[in-house]
Structure formats: C-alpha cells, structure tokens
Design brief:
- The complex is a heterodimer of chains A (518) and B (301).
- Chain A is globular.
- Chain A folds into two domains: 4-142 and 341-495, FAD/NAD(P)-binding domain (3-Layer(bba) Sandwich), CATH 3.50.50.60; 151-215 and 220-336, FAD/NAD(P)-binding domain.
- Chain A has helices at residues 16-27, 45-48, 80-93, 184-191, 218-226, 229-250, 257-270, 274-280, 297-301, 359-364, 397-421, 433-447, 451-454, 476-482, 510-516; strands at residues 4-12, 33-36, 100-101, 106-112, 117-122, 127-135, 158-160, 174-178, 197-201, 208-209, 292-293, 306-309, 313-317, 320-323, 328-330, 333-336, 351-352, 382-384, 427-431, 491-495.
- Chain A is 31% helix and 17% strand.
- Chain A has 15 helices and 20 strands.
- Chain B has helices at residues 51-57, 84-98, 112-120, 124-129, 156-166, 177-187, 194-205, 209-221, 225-229, 249-257, 274-277, 279-293, 297-300; strands at residues 12-17, 23-29, 36-40, 62-66, 105-110, 130-136, 235-240, 261-267.
- In chain B, strands 1-2-4-3-5-6-7-8 form an eight-stranded mixed beta sheet, with helices on both faces.
- Chain B starts with 11 loop residues before the first strand and ends with a helix.
- Classes of the chains: A alpha/beta (518), B alpha/beta (301).
C-alpha cells in the first residue's frame, strides 16, 4: 500500500501481449520494468475464458511464441487449460516472475509533461512512474453484456462466458445461451448433453467450417522434442497456408464463394431438417464475420433438447425470456456469449495524455486510431500491443504481437540513445498527427475492398459508427515489415521544457534560419 | 584545382579537453575574425583528409579541424571510450575551445564526422554554435546492412560478410598497389585520379588499428536517426552515387528526416570520399551555407 517506484517500462496486462513484451524487454537488456495485472494470476484472455469447451481456433503450433516453441501441444487445437499452462511456463522459463505485480489494476495512467513520464495509479494504492507504458490489456478482456429489459427480474444465475460461474450446476437445467460467436459455438456442444433444455438466441448465424482437430501423436511429439526444427517447420507451413488465405479476404472477396460451398456442405451433412438448415444459413459473404470452426456445433443444434430462436434476446420477465421475434422460452440460467468491449477499450478512459485528454476522448470522434497499431499522437511514450487495426480474421495474433514487439524494441533502443546523447536531458517520442493520419487513411483505404467491409454483415470488428478499427487489412508478413523499425520522420521528439537550447538564430539567411530555430 | 594540395599550415594548434579528459588535437587555419567553419572527419581519416577544403576555405574563413579520438594527433581512448556520446563530447570540446561564446559556425562532417553532428544535435554547445550543417557521405543507421562493399544482394549473408570486412582486426600494412586498389574499390568512385586515391590510402593506413577496430564496433550498431530529427538548423546533405560505404539511400533518408534540409546534392560517379574526390562541390556547399547563414559572411566571401 502506498509504495512508489519508478521504472523504465510499465507493462499493463499479462496475457500473450504482456508476457511477450516482458520476455522481449529482458532479451533487449531492459530489466527495469513491471508487469501490472489486475487479476491474481497471469494469462489474460486465456485465464478468463475457462468456460466448458474453450479452445483456440488457431492451431496451437502457430498460436504460440516463435521464441518459445512447444513440442508438447496435445492437440492440433489445444484447449484453454493447455494454453494457459503454456503461458505460465513461458513466465517461468524466461524469469518473468519477479516483474509481475498481480492484483494491481491500473486505475489511471497520466502523462506528466514536465517530468516526461507516466504516473500510474493502481487499485491497491501502489503508484508507479514509468518512462514508457506498454498497454497490453488486449481487446478481448472486458466482457460485453447487452442491456436487456427486465434482466434484473430473472431469478436464476446469469453470467458471461468469459466470467464462467463454476459454482453453478447446469445439469438438468433449462439454459439460455445468447450469442452465436466463437465462444457460443464451443460452449453449446460442450454443455448440451448435460443440460435439460438449451435455448440458443441467434441474431445472425455464423459460417461454420469443419475443424480438422486431432490428437498430436506421441510419435510427433517425440519427433518435435528430438528435432526442434520440425516444430518450426510445422509452424511455417501452418503460417504459410493462412498467409495465402488472407489475400482472398483482403483483395478478392468475390472468390470466397467456393469456401461458402464447403461451409454449406458442412451444414447440410449435419443438419437434415430443411427448416433448421435455412435458419442456420448465413445471408452474408463468408469471412465478413469471423469464420468459426466446429464439428460439434451443428450436430448439437439438432438434438431434441435444443431450441434455436432466430432472434436476439429482447426482454426478460422473471424466468420467461422473450425473443425479438416475440417468441418466449423459460430458463433457469442465462449464459451471455456476447463478446467483448473491442472497439471501446475500457483502458482508454483511464489513460490521460499530454493535453489532459483521455485516450477515449481522443478516439471519440474518429474512432480508434494509431500509428502502426502502436502509438497515438498526444500520448508520448505510450504504446499498445494489439492496438487499433492489428487484429486478424484468420491467423495467429501471436504473429502480430511479435511484430509489435519488434517495434517496441526499436522504439526503446532509439529512446535510449536519445537519452544517453542528451546527457541526462531526458526525451520522449510523440507520434506526429500527420503520420497517424496517413497510416490510418492507408489502412481504411485498403479496408474498403475487404470482405469485412463488403461482405454485407455487421461484426464485432466494426465500431458504433461502422468503421472497422479492429482488423489489419493485409498479410502478417506485411505488418511485420511495416513495424520492423520506428521511422523517425513519424515522431516528434519531446524534451523537458527548457532543457533543449533552441538552435541559435543565424544572421544572414534570415528567413531560412528563423525557420530552422523553431 | 591541384589534385593533392600540400598540407596547409595551421595558424594555431591546440588540444581541446573532452568530457572524459581525452585530449582532442585541433588545428585552426585562416584569418582571425573571418566566418568560422568546423570540419569533422570520418572513420580512419584525420585532419589531413580535409586538405582540399582547408586550402580553399582558409583564404577567407577561419577553418577549425580536429582529429577524432584515436585518429591522427588525438590519442587512443581507453576501453569504452569509443561511442556516439564520445563523438558528441569531443565536438563540444572543440567548439568550446575554438569559438567565442555565441560565435556561429558552419559545421561540416564527413561520414563518421556527419554522425558526430547527429550525435551532438541536442548538446548545448552544438546548438549555441551551429548556424548550419553539412552532412557529407554519411548515414544515421543500418550502416552495415546497407553497405554495398560486398557485391551480393541485400540480406544476412551480405551483412555478415560486410561486418567482417569493416570490423577486420588485421593490420593494413604498408600502402601497396593492391591495397590502393582495394581502397579505391571500397571507398572511391571509379574515375578518381590515382594520386588522390594514393593520398587517401596514406591517410587511412596511418590510422591506428585499435581506433579503427574500436570505432568499427560503434558504427556497426549505431542508430542516430532521432539525432537527425534534432538537427533543427539549416542542414545540407551531399552524397556520391558510387558510394559503397554509405550509398545514397542514406542521404535520401537523411533529407527526409531533417527538420530543415536546405539541399540534397547527389554527385554522379563520386564514391564515399567526396571531400577528396569532389572538393569543388564540397567547398561550394560549405561556402553556400556560410554565405547564407553566418553573420558577416557575405562581405568576406
């Protein structure tokens, strides 16, 4: 309580982004940093989402750090407990433990323009000052639950998939699941066999493709252990396939019809009832919303104890649930599989920049925007990992995280040399508004032809104004190239007021010289 | 212009004392009271490298030139003594020792001398004295990976081999026809007259091995990109198209990053040693900056 400490870098969050940042910092020789985590253990999204059936829909050998290959992944798509354990293992292997500050929720981070550092307050009362803040809170961290009229009148348990209530026994109960996204399609088949009745509220059906999941054999694992290069090879081929796919999403959405045919066949094989099939067939272009992978979702929906309501949940009257189409159903428990605050990151309200403005205010008009997914003008030495327009529709976010860590490393190297050459006259970097503007314009211009913009759907990639501020409209290789190093032309150097002698005004070439002395 | 002018005689020579106590051998040429020009040479060179500039400019400028630490008359530094900060420290020491308080000068740096300007851009003495800057055949970063000394496509192999060549610890030995050819290949344009190549070879071969190796390690990882952003005074950039050490891609980047770039000159057929290969162009660039940005310069020049 009440302690204070200055650090070179404060990392907010201990999911893949935060832990990845911590490892990278140590590898860059930066040891003066803390990782602030609001919960009492690390893992971020992969700690919070422990609902039945939770797994990652990106193959495990790709959904892991390139610097921490894991020969022991048990399945092609490993479950949440394995992913969480992997992250814990990375923390141990790379000695991140001493940097962790668990139970330290950041309540505010404020830029001190005189001292050139961030002042960070945490919930237990400890304060930190940090030269650089790495905001690694992630987009899938704060669950989003819709405002439903009468929800407070519901007598039974109500919870979100990302905050699963393990004390509630759903066996034999009437359970309503709201939502049909990536969480819902995993939780529905997982709980369907044991619940009494399952009512699924579906506003929009997802496109579902076969999930080529299987155990990774003992032989494969032994091979991976004996010849580590085989792990890398496996990773490369998984990466390459997705890298090719994404071109269809970003440049040729018209060619996705073939993929739709595969998804239709997948549906037809599992669902013989024409009426149900019709209700489960999407009317938008595949890829517009996230493509979901499951072999068990459709079969579960055909079970006699499952009802699919093709409407959102509109109202709750006691234990009676009313769909937007007027249909009613009774339930003992409600599970919201309704996603996260993605385009309105809650941390943005707690970050106060150079002008005294919060990040949320800075983003209020134009939506989330940044320079190379990382920095924002007016917020010196503040960097997001998985910032605006760094999300992927089909490949591993770890690739994007690692690309952003390259950027972070170069940023810190440059900042370091600036400080050293300044002989104690500290400096900070502030993204130039024109650079942020240019980056964002380019992203949005490329977005225009992608399936996310043209596919005829609304998705969680869009903000309230219909802008896609979430997805990177290119390949991961492109993003990696764009974030290999900090371009000095895109930044202004901020020094403590009065510490940088203005360049002396020259005599003869008056006009030019004056300009030079700004 | 004679190809190899005899070394001009300094009116004064002194030892500036740098922040860590290192002595920096400094020579002053030309008339007192004339507009000042400060010359900072590159890796493995010395004051003698600027012979053609000093001969021309000292007629109507006060020309200050100094030996970077470990080079020429400046003694070798101890361990850890070679760094970007040391470049800035030494330049500051020279400026303080040779210029009156508030006196303005045009600062010209070639190669590592240009990097010296970038390294010093936030220093008080530098900002006090630098009216304008000339960056000659230089770069701010990625010096090894962008070098064209090894005739391969860009990539890890070329970078690795270049690092070995530039960081080589072997002594250069005496100046021989072979070593002169090698030097011309690496650092000078194909049409450079033999006597100029020979003069350069003598300067480079005179560089103590420890300084050469010590500085090459600094150049390997150098990143002064943000230093360029703080060169807020009028700054001109000059490069040769045949430069294998700091190919013109560096100059174009510098011009893009400089807050106040007055001119980007790219000289066809000229290699890395532009002050020796194209003294007329370099002298004209310095004179132009002096005339445009120094008080009293117009009347004198």
């Amino acid at each position: 309580m009440g302690q204070h400490r200055h650090v070179r870098v404060a990392v907010i969050g201990s999911g893949f982004a935060g832990i990845g940042a911590a490892v990278r910092l140590r590898r860059e020789g930066v040891t003066d940093f803390v990782v602030l985590e609001r919960a009492d253990s690390i893992g971020g999204t992969w700690r919070d989402n422990d609902y039945p059936g939770c797994a990652c829909d990106v193959p495990s050998h790709l959904y892991s750090f390139s610097f921490a290959p894991n020969a022991e992944w048990p399945r092609a798509f490993s479950g949440q407990p394995y992913i969480r354990a992997y992250l814990e293992n990375v923390v141990d292997t790379f000695g991140i433990g001493p940097h962790l500050r668990l139970g330290h929720e950041v309540t505010s981070a404020r830029w001190d323009a005189d001292a050139l550092h961030w002042v960070i307050e945490t919930a237990p009362g400890a304060t930190f000052t940090a030269d650089v803040v790495v905001s690694a809170g992630g987009p899938l961290s704060d669950p989003k639950t819709p405002e439903i009229a009468g929800l407070s009148t519901f007598p039974g348990p109500v919870f979100h998939t990302a905050r699963w209530d393990h004390d509630v026994d759903l066996r034999g109960k009437r359970v309503a699941v709201v939502g049909t996204g990536a969480s819902a399609i995993q939780v529905v088949p997982a709980i369907q066999p044991e619940v009494g009745r399952l009512t699924l509220f579906q506003r929009t059906p997802p496109w579902v493709m076969p999930r080529r999941d299987r155990d990774i054999t003992r032989f494969e694992r032994a091979l991976h252990r004996a010849v580590p290069a085989t792990v890398a090879l496996r990773r490369q081929s998984l990466w390459g396939m997705r890298e090719l796919q994404v071109q269809a999403f970003t440049r040729h959405p018209g060619e996705l019809g073939l993929v739709e045919a595969l998804a239709r066949r997948h549906l037809a094989k599992a669902v013989s009832d024409r009426d149900l099939r019709a209700r489960l067939t999407p009317s938008y272009r595949i890829g517009c919303k996230r493509i979901l992978l499951s072999n068990t979702y459709y079969p579960a929906l055909t079970r006699p104890n499952v009802d699919v309501v093709t409407a959102g949940l509109a109202e709750v009257r006691g234990s009676e649930l009313v769909g937007a189409d007027g249909s009613t159903a009774r339930a003992d428990a409600i599970v919201f599989a309704t996603g996260f605050h993605v385009t309105d990151m809650p941390i943005a309200r707690r970050v106060v920049g150079a002008g005294g403005r919060t990040l949320a205010d800075a983003w209020a008009d134009g939506g989330m925007r940044s320079l190379r997914g990382a920095t924002v003008d007016g917020f010196p030495n503040w960097m997001t990992i998985i910032g605006p327009n760094t999300g992927l529709g089909n490949s591993s976010m770890i690739l994007m995280i690692e690309a952003q860590l390259n950027y972070l490393a170069d940023y810190l190297r440059k900042l370091d040399s600036l400080d050293r050459r300044g002989k104690g006259r500290r400096a900070a970097l502030d993204a130039r508004p024109a650079a942020v503007e240019a980056w964002n314009e380019n992203v949005q211009r490329r977005m225009a032809r992608t399936v996310w913009a043209t596919g005829g759907c609304t998705s969680w990639y869009m903000d309230a104004q219909g802008r896609n501020t979430t997805i990177w409209p290119g390949t991961t290789a492109e993003f990696k190239r764009e974030t290999l190093r900090v371009d000095p032309a895109e930044y202004d150097i901020v020094r403590r007021p009065g510490t940088l002698v203005p360049a002396a005004p020259a005599g003869a070439g008056a006009a030019e010289a004056k300009e030079g002395a700004r | 212009m004679r190809p190899t002018p005899p070394a001009p005689r300094p009116v004064r020579s002194l030892e500036a004392v740098s922040a860590d106590g290192s002595r920096v051998h400094t020579e002053v040429f030309g008339p007192d009271g004339a507009p000042a020009v400060v010359l900072s040479h590159g890796w493995t060179c010395s004051i003698a490298f600027w012979a053609a500039q000093i001969e021309d400019l000292a007629r109507d400028h006060r020309v200050v030139a100094y030996d970077q630490r470990g080079h020429g008359g400046s003694p070798a530094a101890g361990p850890g003594g070679y760094s970007a900060e040391a470049l800035a420290d030494d330049l500051e020491a020279v400026l303080d020792a040779t210029l009156a308080p508030g006196e303005q000068a045009v600062l010209a740096g070639h190669s590592m001398g240009g990097m010296t300007m970038m390294a010093a851009s936030a220093r008080p003495s530098f900002r006090e004295h630098a009216a304008a800057v000339l960056l000659c055949s230089t770069g701010a970063s990625r010096l090894v990976s962008d070098s064209l000394v090894v005739p391969l496509r860009a990539g890890r192999l070329r970078t690795g081999l270049t690092r070995r060549v530039l960081g080589a610890r072997a002594p250069l030995g005496p100046v021989t026809p072979l070593s002169v050819r090698a030097l011309r290949y690496g650092t000078m344009g194909p049409a450079t007259p033999k006597d100029r190549v020979r003069a350069c070879a003598e300067i480079v071969h005179a560089c103590p091995r420890a300084a050469r190796v010590g500085w090459s390690a600094v150049l390997d990882t150098l990143d002064l990109e943000l230093g360029v952003r703080e060169l807020t005074m009028p700054t001109a950039v000059l490069a040769g198209t045949a430069d294998r050490l700091t190919p013109p891609v560096h100059a174009r980047r510098l011009a893009g990053w400089l807050p106040h770039c007055t001119d980007l000159t790219v000289l066809p057929g000229i290699g890395h040693m532009s002050p020796v290969e194209a003294p007329e162009a370099v002298n004209a660039a310095i004179r132009g900056l002096a005339a445009g940005h120094l008080k009293h310069a117009e009347g004198v020049a």
